[in-house]
Amino acid sequence: MRWDQLTRNAGNDTTAGDGGTGGNAALFGADSVTTRTFDTPEFRGITFHEVRARSIVNRVPGASRMPFEWTVNPYRGCSHACVYCFARKTHSYLDLDTGLGFDSQIVVKTNAPELLRGKLASRQWQGAHIAMGTNVDCYQRAEGRYGLMPGIISALRDYANPFSILTKGTLILRDLELLQQAARVTDVGVSVSVGFVDEELWRTVEPGTPSPLRRLGAVRTLTDAGIGCGVLMAPVIPFLGDHPDQLRATVRAVAASGATSVTPLVLHLRPGAREWFMSWLGERHPQLVRRHERLYAEGAYAPKWYQRRITRQVHELAAEYGIGPAQRGVPRRIPAPPETSPAVPTQLTLI
User: Fold this and answer.
1) Are 71 and 109 in contact (CB under 8 A)?
2) Minimal CB count within 10 Å: which of 70, 114, 312, 342?
3) C-alpha 216: how far from its chain's center?
4) Beta strand pairing status for 57-59 and 47-51?
């Protein structure tokens, strides 16, 4: 591994959304890595590399399509093991395998909460929006053991710093009270990723995630608690999850969950993810390999005509089921309760 090949460049704490090494900036020192395995069913076959990171707030490259500038990613690698995950390439920067290694070699930045608190306290920090879950899922199974997110959310709450979270993990419900506290003082956006509700497809392409219906149950819980939650309908997988009946079933389930919005996103295949996905496709659905090769012949993204077709279908279904126009889940702020609170509980309302 390249722990010892990463040289420090003092004062530089920016990386490619945690997707690279930010030039010569070290992610952590070689002497700060502790490797652990746990012989429990949920972690069997997974190796954790505990590190003391040197930075945690990462700048997204200007050329990125992402609608935010700053990210926090407390983990590298993801036990969700989604065969299409675009973040697989990031493991190659540490000479880790982007296939099974990405699923089972998890880097844990154990000092993430204290690093973030220090950054937010800095005079140079201007309180910009921070996005989480944009590289790998911050509520993957490892979070159940390491518990980094409560400290991260608490720091953001204490500095009233706006933030958003995207996740496939139902573990976010553990931190519901912290999210409510943060939403009283700053803008908090939460989105849950559910690309389809087809159980057979879920078990083969997202084997380490909670089921789609469990995720939608988390959407209902969050929304009922006053945290408006959108659904990122991602990915819509060509020829496997894009049949009109599949799209309808997914949007209908999203609407029933009380989601504030639904935003479709067609599968994209960046280097690293492309090779792993196509290998999986050749084993599971060899008859579809040529169709995917033709559809993605021009690069990582499906053709515009295909993306527009899926977007139009989902928009129409969203309107039919009463969700309204598909849009990104907007941040919500819960009003702070009055200082003289009544004896009976007051229902939370949204602005």
Assistant:
1) no
2) 342
3) 15
4) unpaired
